[in-house]
Design goal:
Elements (H helix, E strand, L loop, with lengths): L1 H6 L1 H17 L3 H10 L5 H20 L4 H16 L12 H15 L6 H16 L5 H16 L17 H4 L6 H10 L13 H11 L11 E6 L2 H8 L14 E8 L11 H19 L3 E6 L4 H11 L5 E10 L15 H4 L4
Antiparallel strand pairs: 1-2, 2-4, 3-4
Helix pairs in contact: 2-3, 5-6, 5-7, 6-8, 11-13
The chain binds flavin mononucleotide (FMN).
Flavin mononucleotide (FMN) binds next to strand 3.
Length: about 350
């Protein structure tokens, strides 16, 4: 310690203050915040991104009135109202105006986009809502009139007669369970982190199919605040593979690299700042299992919150201030000659507690 003190006195004194202040602060929330303000700025980027997302969300909701995430969330809330037992006579009056505000802009822009089934979903759910709700509330009847006018003045191909409406339905009648537990368990067990891949291109069609499976994952209020950024250009793969830390020793074997990016503008409040990580992780799991079902493999790769790396990744992906990388993934055809870690799992009794 004395040797160290003589060599780098300032650094050591600072370290001592830092350590002691950390111990002193841990029992107090305010002091903990002060500690991170004075000694460790690891949270700065996250705080700024959460704030940027919130401002973006509020601007799109209130100023531009074209907030896609808001429309998805509120369509979801209306669907929940429609499926309640018993269904309430009146619901949604607090948020129907903002919903129709955003519906107007998004409908006008997307009404003929036949590749976006959500446009039909927005319409069908709102139509069902206004067709079944008690219209005696003045705000609801006003918004109903607005909704009908928007659609009348902006006719859409999405409204061509269709057999099924995108509204709450009886699932049991439609979905036959054609995967049994053993098959599913085997698929889960087959998936292992693969780090050695064949030098063989991965058809984009298969990647898209896996993403379509991932797209069926649950997400809070159905907002799906993430995107899969896929790199299959060898030069770009070489660059992006170096950005996280966890690829050393095998990065050169990865033919396709994915970066999952989260969108913090999905939220109007800090309370939801962690939701994008959960939603993206759930989607990633489906994505990896879907790959396995097509004889492709994957390795999740940690995205560390380290300023220098964040900054490089931000410029590489050209991210908005409210977007953040969540995780990376190497994917490809597994090399049968490459070893895979056994990775025995924890016993059931360690990971499960009833009541
Ligand atoms: C969030 C997350 C981050 C990971 N980061 C890395 C990584 O940086 N490098 C790596 O080689 N493996 C990484 N892995 C893979 C894990 O090491 C692997 O999932 C774990 O050892 C269990 O093995 P299995 O996936 O074969 O079941 C990561 C996995 C997850 C879920």
């Amino acid at each position: 310690m004395i040797k160290e003190l003589l060599k780098r006195p300032k650094k050591l004194v600072r370290q001592l203050i830092d350590d002691n202040f950390a111990r002193l602060s841990v029992g107090s929330r305010k002091l903990s915040v002060l500690y991170y303000f004075l000694f460790d700025r690891s949270f700065d980027r996250e705080i700024q991104a959460v704030l940027a997302g919130k401002i973006q969300h509020i601007d799109e909701a209130k100023k531009n009135k074209n907030n896609y995430f808001l429309l998805v969330r509120n369509t979801h809330r209306i669907e929940k109202g429609l499926l309640m037992k018993p269904r309430r006579d009146l619901f949604g009056k607090e948020y129907i105006t903002e919903t129709i505000d955003s519906f107007e802009a998004i409908w006008k822009l997307g009404k003929d986009d036949n590749d976006n089934a959500q446009i039909k979903w927005f319409y069908d759910v709102l139509n069902e809502y206004f067709s079944t709700i008690n219209l005696s509330h003045p705000n609801i009847s006003k918004e109903e009139a607005r909704f009908r006018l928007i659609v009348k003045e902006n006719p859409s191909t999405a409204l061509e007669p269709h057999t099924t409406k995108s509204i709450p339905y009886h699932r049991a009648k439609q979905d036959a369970n054609n995967v049994n537990y053993t098959q599913f368990y085997n698929l889960c067990k087959q998936r292992r982190s693969v780090r050695w891949f064949l030098d063989r291109p991965v058809p984009r069609e298969l990647i898209d199919k896996a993403i379509l499976a991932a797209n069926q994952a649950p997400s809070a209020c159905n907002r799906q605040p993430f995107e899969f950024r896929v790199f299959d250009d060898p030069e770009m793969v070489k660059n992006v593979v170096k950005l996280p830390m966890g690829t050393s020793g095998y990065g050169h074997s990865i033919p396709v690299m994915i970066v999952l990016v989260g969108n913090l503008d999905a939220y109007f409040d800090e309370r939801d700042r962690h939701v994008m990580y959960i939603d993206a992780s759930l989607a990633s799991m489906s994505f990896m299992l879907a790959l396995e079902s097509m004889n492709l493999s994957s390795c999740s790769i940690n995205w560390p919150d380290i300023e220098a790396r964040e900054s490089k990744m931000h410029s590489f992906l050209n991210l908005k201030p409210y977007q953040r990388p969540i995780m990376c993934m190497g994917i490809g055809y597994p090399d049968p000659d490459g070893l895979v870690a056994y990775s025995e799992k924890r016993p059931l009794h360690q990971i499960r507690k009833y009541n």
